[in-house]
Amino acid sequence: MIRTLFLLAAATCTLPGELVDRVAVALGNQAVTLSAIDEQIRVSAFLNRQPADFSPVHRRRMAERMIEQTLLRREMEASRFTLPGGSEVSAALERTRKDRGETEAEFQAAMTKYGVGADALARNLVFQLTILRFIELRFRPGSTVSDGEVEIYYRETFVPAWERRNAAGVTPPDLDDAREEIEQVLLQTKVDQSMDEWLKQTRARTRVRFLEEAFQ
Amino acid sequence: MVSFVAWSLGAIATAADSGFAGLPVSAVRFDPAEQPIPKEELELLVGLRPGSALDPSAVREAIERLYATGRYTDVIVHAERDATGVSIRFETKGTWFVGRVTVEGVPDPPNKGQLVNATKLALGTRFETDDVRAATANLEKKLDGNGFFEARIDPRLEYDAPTQQVYIDFRIDPGPRARFTTPSIQGLEASQIPRVIQSTNWPRLWGLLGWKPVTESRVAQGLDRVRRSFAKRDYLQSKISLDNLEYLPTVQRARPELTVEAGPQVRVRTDGAKVSRGRIRQLVPIYQEQSADRDLIVEGARNLTEYFRAQGYFEAKSEFTTETETDGSRAIVYTIDRGDRFKLARLSVQGNTYFDARTIRERLLTTPATRLRYRRGRFSDSLLRNDIDSIRELYVSNGFRSVKIGSDLQRGLPGKPNWLQLGIRIEEGPQWLIARRQIEGVSAAHEAEIDQMVTSAPGQPFSEASLAADRDNVLAYYYNNGYPNASFDWQVAAARDANRVDLKLTVVEGAPQFVRNFLIGGLDVSDPEMVLRRIRLTPGEPLSQARLVESQRRLYDLGVFARVDVAVQNPDGTESGKYVLYQFEEARKYSINFGFGAEIARIGSGTPNFDAPAGQPGFSPRASLGITRTNFAGTGHSVSLQTRVSNIQKRVLASYIAPQFKGSDNVTLTVSGLYDQSLDVRTFQATRQEGSVQLSNRVSRDVTFQSRFTYRRNIISSLAIDDDLVPIFSRPGRVGIASTTFIQDRRDNPIDSKRGYYNTIDFGFASKIFASQTDYARVLARNSTYHRVWKDVVLARSVAVGWLNSFTVGGVSEVPLPERFFSGGASSHRGFPDNQAGPRDLRTGFPLGGSGLLNSNFELRFPLIGDSVGGVLFHDAGNVYSSLKTISFRVQQRDFKDFDYMVHAVGAGIRYRTPVGPVRIDFAYAPNSPSFQFEKRDGFVPVVPRTIVTQRLNPLEFHFSLGQTF
Fold first, then answer.
1. CB burial class (10 A; 0-12, 13-18, 19+) of residue A69?
2. Strand, helix or coil at B844?
3. For residue B836, which of A105, B46, B633, B916 sits 20 to 30 Å off, Cα-Cα?
């Protein structure tokens, strides 16, 4: 009884101070903080030139993405995957700036506007670079495309799509000409499927806990 | 660009910092103030120091580091401005970890261990409230499987805040255990169902006594029996599944719902070569696996091919087809083309210079023809491939990275068209050596050990296999020194010189872990100090996996715990100090054993009989009862009382055993008291009262020293010899003897040895200084060896030599009769009845024992019927002699007073193997068994007129007992 009363008193007692940061999601012993989720929202909004959305629903959606990223990062660490070097990071930042068609000053101003730090952006770009390479290395070797699959895709997807895009009477390329393109599409689909399946299984094995108070 | 990179390394304030970023930190507090991590470590983890500017990313990293310790389920950081800056408060919620888990109230089966395992609550792991629900559901499933469908489970949790442990006790009211009832079986015709039900073995006595109670193992065994019964009738594709175990609460019965798909019968036959049915069952794995999968059928074809190739048909091939017969059954037909029969006459190895031919040949399975064992040699393509791989592996692991191995098979030798000659060609190529070696990442404290441990060193051959071995050794070293996350990697680069490599080894030690403290649970009567003394770790020491396991073994070795679980609390957490959990289940305090048996031999009836001093066939029923109290007073010691009663012996033995005496693993102290009233030596009835203290020290895996002091009092009664003539023997004797025994045991199996040797030397010294009434020294040495001469045929031999010498005036006669050597019988010399060897009293004919002993045994042990019944042929030779000097190899007895000659016995025996050792019957024939004379008596009084009787020990003896002779 004394213990219960004590706990009740502790719960209702309001201690002074403003919340700065907290654990939002836990994957085993690994924490994803609220500030990390918000940072990711800001970077994502900056890269997509969209307003940052800090609503609970969007935060949760972003948290889900970060869980997947964390699982992939763990797998990369376990397989000692080499991270991109500093020059690659600089090049990626430069490329992003150029893609946006901004001067360095404009680029910096946009970052300030979104509240995106240079280190956060760099981290994000590094991760994007890394993850693409890792997915290729980890999931592509196990993915193959058979001639039968190419033929079916050509017949059921490629040709109808060509006919929709082109005027009647324009002959679609024959199978041999389209084979390489189809193989790439099918291969990429299989890589994505393999990764999705792996993520699903890994997540099922991992103890993931959302701390609901962080999303209210 | 330079400015861009520099700018990117900087940090700007994020929205999350709410304007606190950059303010000086005035204080860092924790809520609650009492934290589960020691203060110094906590400060390092948080990394925020008063006076420094607040960095939001540093706050995030602090949260991540704190959470990674595994000690928290939530960390919230608050900030508040004050006069000097910003005050930071870490609000934390602690994690709970699984401590003791008990399940009480359920009768066996399932046993407690199975129930605790069923909860899937692993000791030391993170605990969450939902886990109890899952554990309860798992327990329900386990209980249902064992017929406890009405069980009620009451989980009770007890929290211990200082250690963050939660103790979970499941109290179960199991209700009645359901019995089976008639199963419902789908997929079979009604006529087949009774047979399936009988094969489950679920009915009691064919159903006459109802049904057996449900247990998990009965369910599994029942299904397996059904499967086997179908397989026996060649239904090798049958599928038997348990769909449900339906509980009928009104009658407390469980109805198994089975689906049986018998499938077609599968028969195997061979074309092209005759193969016996038994051999087919051995070679085609569909019978062992009880499944006719294609993979197994293919494996069968491969096995048949190999079988014929092993017979000399080196080109044999076998293929298979499957056919459906007219009766619907499936036939697997192996078509075998044996080809010609060959003989591998010669095998040569060429091109080897680094390794000699013998080193290579001992790795080869391919064998040229020999006179007896391999009359056609042993050869096939797959054997040759294996051999080539073995040779390649040998070379590659010694730095010959480009070795090439080839083979030439030459068919036909002059005048012998079916003889083969196989040549194995080796092109060794250059040997790659290590030029330079660099080891990175090893801290100074471990440098010397690692440097010595890594065998891949400059000048040594370079091979991946050696590096892999180095990696295993290095990682084992780190794991055992508290680095559970250590890793080892290597990089190889070509050196400047040809065929040389530079090696770079990288060790990442990771953070060391130390023992924070021990949390011990489950001790009801045991003294915790007794447990702690046996744990080979102390708080503050590196967390060594090897020592954890060793401590667990030591605790098990005490014999007082039924279960010792060891775990590290919060194993995945990054904290450096770890609690080590030892959770115990104490064994039952008392164990009682009892038994009944009988001895049939030439042992006499238990009453001295003056007409048969050589003994007569006797039957001696015996009963034994023992009680042992383990973990006496919680010390880990045990006290036992063993009694045995038969018409030739009454025996009470009380012992106090202290294993791991004074903390030493190998030392055992035994204090015992014995009362023994024995009639097994036919000369007298002896009452022995004995007390002894013994220290046994196992100095290595196979060598043990025992030192003991024994104080013994012998009382002789019913003396069958004339006490006027040898009055010394009739005196009650008091012996104080100090003795030591050396035991060297290198046998593969002490109960039924097939290999190894066994040596013992026992030396005893009795003296008046030990309050003994007599002074003598006694040595008894024995050497036994065991040799496997052919598969299961074993040649065993043993020799025993004994010497006894009295130091008092009057010589050996001063030594009390029971202290002298007696021999003969099932476990010494089988040409004699029990204890009938050696000198005899010249007036009564009864054995007197001697002071010299020589006994030799040879035994050929071989299998007779199956694995259980074996036979032996043996030769025993030896005797008990009046002194060491009179030991003789003479085979003839000079006269009726001469017993100092060697008695030989040959014989045969049968052994029936049982789990406690072989039951044996031996028949021995001793062609030179001793003859002796004695005066015919009426009680103790010689008959008048004086009549001398001559008697000879029966040359034919039989013995029935348990265990091998030696």
1. middle
2. coil
3. B916
Contact between chains at A20 and B31 (C-beta distance less than 8 A): no
DSSP state of B771: T
Contact B60/A42, CB-based, under 8 Å?
Answer: no
pLDDT digits (tens, 9 = 90+) for B884-923: 999 999 999 999 999 999 999 999 999 998 877 889 999 9
Q: Is 60 exceeded by the pLDDT of residue B120? A: yes
Q: Do A19 and B10 touch (CB under 8 A)?
A: no
| Interface predicted TM-score of the whole assembly (ipTM), two decimals | 0.85
Instruction: Find, in chain A, the residue whose alpha carbon is nearest to that of B161.
Output: A3
Domains and CATH numbers, chain B: 2-94 (3.10.20.310), 96-173 (3.10.20.310), 179-261 (3.10.20.310), 266-337 (3.10.20.310), 343-427 (3.10.20.310), 433-508 (3.10.20.310), 514-587 (3.10.20.310), 592-962 (2.40.160.50)
Q: Could you tell me the CA-to-CA distances from B273 to B297, B307, B630 in Å, in that order?
A: 18, 12, 64
- Are B67 and A23 an interchain contact pair (Cβ–Cβ within 8 Å)? yes
Q: Is A120 on the interface with B (CB under 8 A)?
A: yes
Most confident of A155-159, B4-8, B807-811: A155-159
Interface test with B, best of A2, A4, A14, A23 (most B CBs within 10 A): A23
DSSP string, B455-516: ---TTSBP-HHHHHHHHHHHHHHHHTTT-TT-EEEEEEEE-SSTTEEEEEEEEE-----EEE
Q: What pLDDT does residue B818 have?
A: 76
Query: Any idea which architecture A20-141+199-215 has in CATH?
Result: Orthogonal Bundle (1.10)
**In the numeric block, which tokens belong to residue B144?**
């249902």
A35 contacts B79? CB cut-off 8 A: no
Say yes or no for a CB contact (<8 Å) between A20 and B5. Answer: no
- Indicate if the pLDDT at residue B589 is higher than 50: yes
β-bridge partners, B590: B629
A33, A108, A115: residue with CB nearest B63:
A33
Contacts B76 to A, Cβ<8 Å:
19, 21-23
- Comparing alpha-carbon positions, the chain A residue that sits nearest to B575 is A29
Q: How far is A112 from chain B (nearest CA, A)?
A: 8
Query: Chain B partners of A126 at a C-beta cutoff of 8 Å?
Result: none
**Rounded Cα distance, B685 and A1, in Å:** 75
Convert the pLDDT of each residue in B494-517 to its tens digit.
999 999 999 999 999 999 999 999
Q: How confident is the model at residue A136 (pLDDT cuts 50, 70, 90)?
A: confident
